[in-house]
Amino acid sequence: MSTSTTDPVTMSPQAAPSEDPALRAARSERRMRILMPCAALLCALGLWEFLVRYNEIPHYLIPAPSLILETLWKDGPSLLSSAWFTVKLTLLSLGLAIIGGVALGMVFALSRTIEMSLFPFAVILQVTPVVAIAPLILIYVDSTFAALLICAWIVAFFPILSNTAIGMRSADHNLRDLFTLYGATKWQRLRYLLIPSALPYFMAALKIAGGLALIGAVVAEFVAGTAGQNTGLASRILESSFRNEIPRMFAALLLVSMLGILIFLATSWLSRAVLGHWHESEIKRQG
Amino acid sequence: MPLDTTAQGAAQIEMSHVFKRFDNGTLALQDMDLTIRQGEFVSLLGPSGCGKSTALRMISGLLSPSSGQITVNGHAPGSAGKSAGVQGGDVSFVFQEPTLMPWATVFDNVYLPLKLRGLSRREAEAQVTEALEMVGLAKFGGSYPRELSGGMKMRVSIARAMVTKPKLLLMDEPFAALDEMTRFKLNNDVLNLWRRNGLTVIFVTHSVFESVYLSSRVVVMAPRPGRVVHDLALPDATTRDAHYRTTPEYAETCRLVSDALEGTMDDVDLNH
């Protein structure tokens, strides 16, 4: 509600007698939901700025927010190109995790035998910390980008695989019988029953995998160090720490967080757009 | 006028010496013989565990008997639908729960059986609308199941079963989870559908009153092992209305059926 200041209701309640009080309450709640976090964040930043200046903390220990912003502005172009590298890495690995996870999840759901034989591999991939495997992958894979991609993919892949398989199996038993009674083909069963049933589970997995893909990308970059010519945000953080350029470290860190937030917002939006009209998890309750 | 005109129709379902033993060893159904004719309204009545739902699922083809023979319209159950796609839908099933797809609108839920047969939305529209009108939900085509009451969801489920114009309607305790007012209303709806469309209905229930109100014939079953113990033809099934519930004949028939059911309970160990 950007027009809140010109809202006649706030100036005089009598001016609009037809205004629904419930509607007004909802609108002011929506406004508060944006205003309050922003205000809290600003207060925290102000306190940070004040403490740094008041105690005269040197910028190579803790830089003030103003200095971080200044660095972000100054190093903007080079930091943004690093950010682009990380974005590419994250989205590509997420995309591949979705393709691989959904495909294998469907196969698992359709065949118990294949699931029993392959599931241990998926679990091994999941439980082995990516930091521990990354050096090996970097040795065996020539292209640094491909190696980083594999690391990020390993982390993001498992939740999608596991939730897709569970989701496909969670289809209502009576609905399955109904499809059998009407002689549905395998394809019809998949398209009209199993995929819609799995969608809420897939969306939950996507929210997790989106964040994990970024974490995987950052961790892999850390392990790779500044080896490649095209380097992402994590290697910039590493590089700045070697050179004791703490403000730039913070600036790069800020960009990583913002990336994470963007991914979270995008996946949440997608989930609401896909499930909002029917699934319990995304339905807005009244009263 | 003969009391039971419907019994003159051709035999539609024949079960002979049907046994069903589940994998865990339970004998769910023992030596069931049953012939149901075109146009009958048959209730399978009995306490839980008497195999009434099992019998219904075997007639639909969802379960197969351990031994014995079942034919529906001269075929093995369920086979007609597979061999000739057009016929899949001759038999419809209404479950105890509405069993609607929560992600689809009421229209799309009712359209499902026709969609699975390969009809486009446009080809199916008239039939779906007709089925929705039949259950009084023509205005709710665009709603989602979660927006409807329990009774309305059940009516959508019935509309979905009727959209293929089935010859045989199988209902597995469809109204057990509903309140009494809604149940009475839906009982009348089902009676009207049966009269108007000349279909055969097999209705599984554990309510004596419901079975007597609806059926032209009540098959009483007993548990452990599940078996048929009585087969009662009831008069005047085609002319009943809401007043029938208050007539002495209704009370008398209920008493008769209750007594038949009572006998089945003798060997049930309540401490079991």
TrEMBL record, chain A:
InterPro entries: MetI-like (IPR000515), MetI-like_sf (IPR035906)
Classification via CDD domains: TM_PBP2 (cd06261)
Topology relative to the membrane: Multi-pass membrane protein
One example of a Gene Ontology biological process annotation: transmembrane transport
PROSITE patterns: ABC_TM1
GO cellular component: plasma membrane
Region (Disordered): 1-22
Primary location: membrane
The keyword Transport appears for this protein: yes
SUPFAM superfamilies xref list: MetI-like
Segments of skewed composition (Polar residues): 1-15
Positions of the ABC transmembrane type-1 domain: 83-271
Keywords: Cell membrane, Membrane, Transmembrane, Transmembrane helix, Transport
Localisation: Cell membrane
Transmembrane segments: 34-51, 89-111, 118-139, 145-166, 198-220, 249-275
Family: Belongs to the binding-protein-dependent transport system permease family.
Protein name stated in the entry: NitT/TauT family transport system permease protein
TrEMBL record, chain B:
Protein name per its UniProtKB record: NitT/TauT family transport system ATP-binding protein
Domain ABC transporter: 13-250
Pfam families attached to this UniProt entry: ABC_tran
Superkingdom to which the source organism belongs: Bacteria
Similarity comment: Belongs to the ABC transporter superfamily.
Any one GO MF annotation of this record: ATP binding
The keyword Transport is annotated on this UniProt entry: yes
InterPro entries, sorted: AAA+_ATPase, ABC_transporter-like_ATP-bd, ABC_transporter-like_CS, ABC_transporter_ATP-bind, P-loop_NTPase
Nucleotide-binding found in the keyword field: yes
Keywords for this protein: ATP-binding, Nucleotide-binding, Transport
Transmembrane annotation, as ranges: none
Signal peptide: none
